[in-house]
Specification:
The complex is a heterodimer of chains A (about 260) and B (about 325). By secondary structure, chain A is of the alpha/beta class. Helix content of chain A is about 25%, strand content about 30%. The chains are: A alpha/beta (about 260), B alpha/beta (about 325). Chains A and B meet through helix 3, helix 4, strand 9, strand 10 and strand 11 of A and helix 3, helix 4, strand 5, strand 7 and strand 8 of B.
Chain lengths: ~260, ~325
């Protein structure tokens, strides 16, 4: 079986507030010298793929379509255990999910992957649309918001989170699964030996200057200020402070 | 024309969300709206559609017409209706319907339609706008981005416009007419995804839906500290939450993480314990209506986003707070 993991590269969401800047004219986040990382849930998706590789020796490739410097995050993915990486460089501007998925589709449709994994939501736009749209274009089956995929007797077995638990789903068709975080898919730390080995693994880089008719246009972006007036509770000890807080919450009917 | 999509399993809160959104949309574009209710034969109210309409009539007044979309099961031997995977079935149905005659196709972004809507939207080459939280006077759709740090305004460039709503607060006008109700039947003959098990996990109140969230961060210092957090949460009927630092340290499971790379919550009351307030975390909780923070550092950024601050050792403070809650319970 052949597995492809779609990795979105994003400006590190963990940077301090002072480093988070929006270019309001171009309606995008300013890169500056901030680190570029793999979007969180995509790392969980890679871990799910690597668990399948550990057990069945399936091929695991990664694919990233990005305007950013891909070197560090892609090398990390290879060091974690991916076999081969494909990078498609694009200009830094907003592309709607259908047109972005079409660019990915053009590069992967000939490859006959059996399973495509990716995070259920990206840390930047957070639209959750790429997994459904890519499965729709490929005519693959689709299961979102899952945390594990196994392979047993020619079937994919998928565990998907629902309101108060999870469901177990089974199919023998090619499919796209989007992954959320769970204690079972926490990304592994590459060992020094793996990091050395990764430098020998292939990264195939292409560039595209897409020409398309947008399905969805970003008109503007706002960054609201959310500061509140904080009232500090004084008291001689923990008991008095707790009592004051309790009374206040009671008064506001919050408890 | 506007098309609303729900299943019989969508609750009243979700019905209110879609109905108020459709009403607002109608005020902007003045078009008629239809609601399709997907009705699987293993749903509770399958045979009682009249009851469903009666119970929800105040929430359905934005629609001019309702279709009871009965999904019947005609698959092969040994298969049971409950084995189907609902999103797959609804996708197959919608791809055969003439939904491209509608201008706007709207649903709540629940576990079913967040999957169905972009899948079908791509096939019809429409505009896909997900996670919508508002509409402005120029018919732009507002969605949160960068984990809630920003709000982005999107303009659909293709029809139909496929929309999932994340949340929407708008007064529904009481309708004076009950919409016309029709039925339609479809048969499922085959499917590719089989539901083989359903496992319930007791994990208390669901984080994203909780009215109160009690969250712990690096300052909590370890797994034992989270026992205090859990105790407060259970006394308040709250869900527990955590910052990324606490999750990374392995003190609590990752599904409880609140923040840009975790869950986004908007409870009535958010209690942040030992959380410094990195922007990553703020992004996930800044929609909370009332925020209380407990921290020993008076300069912790979390206080900038809090209504009430308590500068104290959290263990001592929570121990006292727990005593008060136990007495009042």
């Amino acid at each position: 079986m052949r597995i492809l993991v779609l990795l979105k590269l994003v400006i590190d969401p963990e940077i301090p507030q002072s480093k988070f800047k929006i270019d309001f004219e171009n309606k995008n986040q300013v890169v500056d010298d901030n680190p570029i990382v793999i979007s969180t849930y995509d790392e969980n998706a890679l871990e799910v793929a690597l668990k399948l590789k550990d057990k069945h020796n399936f091929e695991v490739n990664v694919f990233s379509i990005t305007p950013y410097d891909y070197q560090q995050p892609i090398k990390k993915a290879l060091a974690m255990g991916a076999d081969k990486a494909f990078v498609l460089k694009i200009p830094n501007s907003f592309i709607d999910s259908i047109n972005l998925a079409r660019l990915i589709y053009d590069y992967i449709k000939q490859e006959d992957y059996n399973l495509i994994l990716t995070g259920y939501e990206s840390a930047d736009w957070g639209h959750r649309s790429i997994p459904p749209v890519i499965s729709s274009l490929l005519d693959y089956k689709l299961i979102t918001y899952s945390y594990s995929v196994e392979y047993e007797q020619n079937n994919w077995i998928i565990r998907k989170l629902i309101g108060n638990g999870f469901v177990v789903l089974k199919t023998n068709k090619n499919l796209v699964v989007s992954i959320t975080t769970h204690q079972e898919n926490q990304p592994r730390y590459p060992k020094v030996k793996d990091i050395m080995m990764a430098s020998k693994k292939p990264i195939v880089v292409n560039e595209v200057n897409p020409n398309f008719e947008s399905n969805l246009i970003i008109e503007k972006i706002e960054q609201p200020t959310i500061k509140k007036e904080c009232q500090f509770i004084d008291g001689k000890d923990a008991h008095e402070k707790a009592q004051k807080l309790y009374n206040k919450l009671k008064e506001l009917k919050l408890v | 024309m506007i098309l609303g999509l729900v299943t019989l399993e969508n609750n009243q809160k979700e019905l209110k969300t879609i109905s108020s959104f459709v009403q607002k949309l109608k005020e902007e574009i003045n078009k008629e709206a239809e609601l399709w209710v997907f009705n699987f034969e293993f749903f509770n109210n399958f045979e009682n559609f009249d009851n469903y309409i009666e119970q929800n009539k105040n929430l359905l007044s934005s629609f001019d017409k309702i279709i009871n979309f009965k999904v019947l099961f005609e698959a092969g031997e040994g298969a049971a209706a409950t084995d189907v995977y609902i999103p797959e079935i609804i996708e197959n149905i919608l791809l055969k319907e003439k939904i491209n005659e509608f201008e706007y196709i709207v649903s709540v972004g629940d576990i079913i339609f967040s999957e169905v809507i972009p899948f079908v939207g791509a096939r019809f080459n429409g505009s896909i706008v997900t996670q919508v939280e508002g509409i402005d006077e120029n018919l732009l759709f507002l969605t949160p981005s960068f984990g809630g740090k920003c709000i982005s305004y999107f303009k659909p460039a293709k029809k139909p416009v496929f929309i999932t709503i994340r949340s929407f607060d708008y007064e529904i006008k009481e309708g004076n007419k009950i919409p016309e109700v029709n039925s339609k039947e479809v048969e499922i003959k085959s499917y590719d995804i089989e539901l083989i098990d359903r496992v319930k996990q007791e994990e208390g109140v669901k984080l994203e839906e909780a009215r109160i969230v009690v969250s712990g961060g690096r300052g909590v210092g370890g797994k034992e500290g989270f026992e205090l957090i859990k105790k407060v949460a259970s006394l308040l009927g709250a869900s527990i939450g955590a910052s990324r630092a606490a999750v990374d340290a392995g003190w609590i499971d990752p599904q409880y993480q609140v923040g840009q790379t975790g869950k986004t919550v908007s409870p009535d009351l958010y209690i942040a314990v030992g959380i410094s307030g990195a922007s990553q975390h703020i992004a996930g909780m800044n929609k909370s209506k009332f925020v209380v923070s407990v921290n020993t550092d008076p300069d912790a950024p979390i206080f900038n986003y809090s209504n009430i601050g308590i500068i104290h050792d959290y263990k001592e403070f929570l121990t006292e707070f727990i005593k008060l809650l136990e007495v009042s319970n």
